Amino acid sequence: MSVLAQLTEDMKTAMKAKDKETLSTVRMLKSAIQNEQINAGHDLNDEEELTIIAREMKQRRDSMAEFKAAGREDLVAQLEAEIAVVTKYMPAQMSEAEIKQVVADTIAEVGATSKADFGKVMGALMPKVKGKADGKIVNETVKALLG
Asked: Can you give the pTM of this predicted structure?
């Protein structure tokens, strides 16, 4: 089942349960996917849908960090609830050990030896971990292993 179909089913369930928080988040995700579909002019494949879900997750995490810094606990609580809903649609996340292994394999694969090869490593690495690992953690791991 595609992510869009799953969102539609979950939206119906949330409506029946009168779960307003889940419903609003699911509607936002569904809207983001449908807008991207309209812009692309074709139905999105699973990978494209997961890219949109990952982008939505990143936006919420970034907003939460800003709200915490500003002391807006009311908004932080709302975003935590949204993140919990969005997480259900994300693929299983890689552990730090798995990320480190994939990074080490990619460094060996491209023959990187110094920090100057950072871009080359990231270019080869990101398609492998897309949606499965936080880009910030991947970035830090690459820097640590190349340093």
From this structure: 0.73
